[in-house]
């Protein structure tokens, strides 16, 4: 606790130290307008050393054309202003020194570029990608991609990002990615997140930040990276928004979604409300093969399975409002409610025997389940500017409750293929879970002299999870099965604090360093068995970033961070979840957090092409592990800690314009992955060379049609103890806008060749566990959207908060 107390005390000193520092800071400020006096929003402002070509620092103007950034060190400079549709402009040379450390440029006027305006759909076809010291920024505002697309379309076309039909996200081939909106977690499941992004116009996006090594200000939880979608500020007085509807068909089921968003601004109030309703459908067709080599005999297990699900949701409601107390201070709230009902089936035909060609036993197992999911979220926030130098203080209070109720019936018919004797067994389960999260945080930012900046913050959270799972035999009457019944209670408290510094160290070197400390206490109790597992641990999470401009066309960056993954709350529950008479899942209350030390060396050429060398060293790796009972021919799937993991890789990003009307975004990943552990059956090693190729194409066709093609190939890889075979994906979308771009129509087709198939296998001491599953990703769909707006331009405020606890509820 002494480290936590020391850092918390340092944060307090920063709050008290203020006035002296703000007096030494200096700013470059101004307002950008066109030649008619209208504000030019989101223009790029670059500070360039006189006589040089590369920028020293820069920023993006707000919606009203205002900009403010920290002045660089003493010297002579020019400002370079640029925006889509305008001629670039440079200011006269100006000098910064001790007597004049900053400058107010007043109003800067940009002239329209008639040629660029005529070809804006070609010039701005591809988003601008900027590699910063701690993240890659994909700028969307002002590009053709922002017109007629959704936020989901833009996300899946970002370098290294892939999202499947259920909303599960991978970044550079790694799953478990955290997604934020304006630095705020969405509190949604993967499927609900996808639905929300599909309902959001891409024109609402300013940029996407791809943060593979998050700095200290973010929660230490998560090792796959963060995707932060920053929204444009609402610039319309009065009302504006959109309505949409879509339908899709996976060649067996039909689903649909529809919704609306509305923004309103009046004087000091700014609010929004969104509604999303859906009927989500899906399923899978699978083959499971297992071979158990026992001391007395060998058992072959062959199973064919079909699954279907339908999930319906009345309008999911999300709303919020901000109130400006003054120009410097605002308060607000956000709230949301989700209700989702689902039903599914999982039908299996299983054959067992000492020979795969001559089974002796057949099991017909049919599982039918129903569920009701409710999610309540609430947030109160404050945003304050404490002085004119850029000192800010933000505070957030988050409350989340997730209630999940389910029940299932299991019908099992056993047939002896020699005697044709049949027996039947019927079982029933009722499960209920209640998750509550309370979190409070505060973040403080203060500019220092010569372009330096310090950030500090604290966060406190508490999680309480109740899981009451009951299992019954149902052969004529319900009889409780005590071996598969469990009431599990979990409580976790985390106290965190961080300190982060960033700034220039010379003309061409940017540095950032931070330290985060998190203190965790948890208690998991099974009231059924009386078992209690208590954990308490304090961890330090340092991060370091450096970016050097070697030449005007070549930048070199380095980053290091330490992160952790805490177990999902459900993985800690020792309940035995039933799949079929020979297969079940079981939680592990003894799971420990996984730790990752991540190193990254990034080369950036011409501000466009990048090549990153990465190395991740992992300990206590969290991974699904199959545990085989060879004599009983049963398999238990659980999550366990493997000893170590090593990931060494190269990631390259190369956008390329094949023609004025044909643009591409290309990503390649090559990595070597190795996992090892001392298991019950001995020392196990799993290693594989992995590669991934991704190429997204945008083609402007005649008749104002736009064709978008997404192609991806994933080579074989290792994940925990599993070997995963190659997969591929091809998707296309044809888009057209009507009525002065107010109506957008999209026709799409996904996984055209059914190549995104999960084929996993393990070999533990010769015992085989293979499965081949296809989740009906191939589909066709149609989307219609109508955008409306009315009013003049105004300003609104955005907040940045995180709440990683919700991500671990799955």
From TrEMBL:
The protein, known as: Outer membrane beta-barrel protein
A cellular component term, taken from the record's GO annotations: cell outer membrane
Pfam families recorded: CarboxypepD_reg (PF13620), OMP_b-brl_3 (PF14905)
InterPro entries the record matches: Beta-barrel_TonB_sf, CarboxyPept-like_regulatory, OMP_b-brl_3
Keyword set, alphabetical order: Cell outer membrane, Membrane
The keyword Cytoplasm is annotated on this UniProt entry: no
Organism the protein comes from: Hymenobacter busanensis
Source species, domain of life: Bacteria
Predominant subcellular localization, coarse grouping: membrane
Annotated localization: Cell outer membrane
């Amino acid at each position: 606790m002494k480290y936590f107390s020391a850092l918390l005390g340092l944060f307090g000193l920063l709050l008290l130290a203020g006035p002296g520092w703000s007096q030494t800071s200096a700013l470059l400020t101004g307002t950008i307008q066109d030649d008619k006096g209208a504000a030019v929003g989101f223009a790029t402002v670059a500070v360039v050393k006189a006589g040089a070509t590369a920028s020293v620092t820069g920023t993006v103007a707000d919606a009203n054309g205002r900009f403010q950034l920290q002045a660089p060190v003493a010297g002579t400079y020019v400002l370079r202003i640029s925006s889509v549709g305008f001629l670039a402009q440079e200011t006269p040379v100006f000098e910064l020194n001790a007597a004049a450390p900053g400058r107010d440029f007043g109003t800067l006027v940009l002239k329209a570029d008639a040629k660029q305006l005529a070809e804006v759909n070609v010039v701005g076809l591809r988003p601008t990608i900027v590699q910063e010291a701690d993240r890659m920024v994909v700028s969307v505002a002002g590009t053709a991609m922002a017109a007629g697309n959704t936020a989901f379309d833009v996300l899946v076309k970002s370098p290294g990002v892939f999202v499947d039909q259920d909303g599960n996200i991978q970044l550079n081939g790694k799953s478990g990615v955290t997604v934020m909106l304006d630095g705020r977690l969405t509190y949604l499941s993967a499927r609900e997140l996808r639905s929300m992004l599909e309902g959001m116009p891409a024109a609402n996006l300013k940029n996407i930040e791809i943060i593979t090594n998050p700095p200290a200000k973010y929660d230490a939880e998560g090792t796959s990276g963060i995707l932060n979608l920053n929204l444009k500020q609402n610039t319309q007085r009065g009302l504006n928004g959109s309505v949409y509807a879509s339908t899709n068909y996976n060649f067996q089921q039909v689903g649909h979604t529809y919704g609306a968003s509305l923004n309103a601004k009046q004087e000091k109030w700014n609010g929004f409300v969104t509604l999303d309703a859906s009927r989500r459908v899906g399923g899978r067709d699978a083959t499971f093969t297992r071979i158990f080599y026992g001391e007395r005999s060998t058992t072959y297990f062959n199973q064919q399975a079909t699954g279907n699900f339908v999930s319906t949701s009345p309008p999911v409601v999300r709303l919020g409002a901000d109130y400006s107390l003054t120009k410097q201070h605002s308060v607000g709230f956000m709230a949301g409610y989700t209700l989702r009902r689902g039903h599914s089936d999982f039908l299996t035909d299983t054959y067992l025997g000492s020979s795969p060609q001559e089974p002796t036993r057949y099991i017909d197992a049919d599982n039918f389940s129903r569920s009701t999911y409710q999610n309540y979220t609430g947030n109160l926030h404050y945003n304050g500017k404490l002085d004119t130098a850029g000192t800010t203080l933000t505070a957030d209070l988050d409350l989340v409750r997730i209630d999940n109720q389910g029940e299932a019936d299991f019908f099992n018919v056993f047939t002896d293929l020699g005697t044709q004797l049949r027996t039947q067994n019927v079982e029933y389960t009722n499960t209920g879970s209640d998750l509550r999260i309370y979190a409070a945080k505060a973040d403080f930012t203060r500019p220092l002299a010569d372009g330096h900046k310090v950030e500090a913050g604290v966060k406190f959270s508490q999680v309480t999870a109740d899981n009451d799972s009951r299992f019954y035999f149902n052969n004529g009457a319900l009889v409780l099965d005590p071996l598969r019944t469990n009431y599990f209670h979990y409580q976790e408290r985390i106290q965190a604090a961080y300190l982060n510094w960033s700034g220039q160290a010379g003309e061409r070197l940017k540095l950032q360093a931070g330290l985060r400390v998190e203190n965790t206490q948890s208690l998991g109790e099974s009231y059924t068995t009386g078992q209690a597992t208590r954990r308490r641990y304090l961890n330090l999470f340092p991060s370091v970033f450096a970016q050097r401009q070697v030449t005007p066309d070549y930048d070199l960056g380095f980053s290091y961070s330490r992160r952790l993954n805490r177990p999902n709350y459900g993985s800690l529950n020792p309940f035995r979840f039933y799949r079929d008479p020979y297969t079940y899942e079981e939680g592990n209350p003894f799971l420990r957090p996984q730790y990752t030390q991540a190193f990254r060396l990034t080369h950036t050429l011409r501000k466009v092409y990048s090549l990153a060398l990465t190395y991740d060293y992992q300990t206590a790796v969290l991974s699904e592990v199959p545990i085989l009972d060879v004599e009983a021919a049963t398999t238990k799937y659980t999550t366990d800690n493997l000893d170590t993991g090593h990931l060494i890789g190269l990631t390259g990003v190369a956008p390329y314009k094949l023609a004025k009307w044909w643009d591409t975004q290309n990503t390649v990943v090559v990595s070597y992955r190795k996992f090892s552990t001392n298991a019950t059956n001995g020392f196990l090693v799993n290693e594989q060379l992995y590669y991934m190729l991704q190429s997204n194409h945008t083609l402007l066709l005649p008749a104002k049609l736009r064709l978008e093609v997404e192609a991806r190939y994933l080579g074989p890889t290792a994940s925990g103890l599993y070997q995963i075979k190659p997969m591929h994906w091809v998707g296309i979308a044809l888009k057209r806008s009507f009525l002065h771009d107010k109506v957008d129509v999209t026709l799409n087709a996904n996984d055209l060749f059914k190549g995104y198939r999960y084929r996993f296998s393990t070999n533990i001491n010769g015992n085989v566990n293979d499965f081949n599953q296809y989740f009906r990703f191939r589909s066709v769909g149609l989307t219609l959207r109508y955008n409306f707006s009315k009013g003049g331009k105004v300003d609104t405020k955005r907040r940045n908060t995180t709440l990683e606890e919700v991500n671990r509820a799955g």
